[in-house]
Amino acid sequence: MFQRVFLLPAAIALIVAGCARTDHLGRPPSLTEPRETTEFAAMTSPIPDAPAGPQRPEQAASLWAGQRQSLVSDRRAAARGDILTVVIQIDDRAEMTNTSSRGRGGSDNLRIQSLAGLPQRSGTPMDPAVQISSSSQHRGTGQTARRERMTLRVAATIIETLPNGVLHIQGTQEVRVNFELRELTVSGFVRPEDIGRNNEIAYDRIAGARISYGGRGQISDMQQPRYGQQVADMILPY
Is the pLDDT of residue 86 over 90? Predict the structure, then answer.
């Protein structure tokens, strides 16, 4: 009974994982429908602006009007549904070296001059009766080096304005080349004053940034171990 309960969830997980690969079985991976994204929902249902008061005719014709259509207005993204560009330029390098050394030595010596008040009469001396010595030494060295480099640009959409004025942005990009689909996703929280005049913001000014660059397709499938091997690596203790 226990084996059935254990194997049933594993079998279901394997079936679901296998069905995900049928999307590009003998054909290119399917692109996500743009109308089903969170960005499209934000652009099609923006928060309405507060109604403005009556405007005089000379104000409507002025070049210095505050509307978005004005030549001198601020064109930076500021409300739900607006679009801005996220510039991702990651060039990180980390190196770490650890060296440890440990040594230990010990010695014990037990001497018996006489046993129960009786002198030693046998030919075998009892002094010393017990003598123990030990020594151990350990030395370890470890080194880790890692470098990541990424240069990308992606358009993101404001999907929410928080009560403190911070903007919640999210952007996705999909590029399909032959039978391989590359996916780029970025999301996080930005301050309106961090958005540049060219309506761009650097990735290091995004709080809680979540940047994902991956893909799916035949090449990605070949680079990953089979699901059975992944399950075995997770369960087996050796």
Answer: yes
Label residue 199 by pLDDT band (50, 70, 90): very high
Residues with Cβ within 8 Å of 146's Cβ and at least 6 positions away in sequence, in order, are 93, 94, 95
How do 167-177 and 130-161 pair as beta strands? Answer: antiparallel
Q: Is the pTM of this model over 0.70?
A: no
The reported pLDDT for the residue numbered 160 is 92
> Can you tell me which residue has the tokens 């440890």?
100
Q: Which residue has the higher pLDDT, 7 or 138?
A: 138
d(CA 3, CA 201): 54
Q: What is the spatial distance between Cα 139 and Cα 89, in angstroms, rounded to a whole number? A: 40
Retrieve residue 13's tokens.
Answer: 């997980």
CA–CA distance, 83 with 169 (Å, rounded to integer): 9
Query: Taking Cα atoms as reference points, which of 171, 99, 169, 109 lies closest to residue 134?
Result: 109
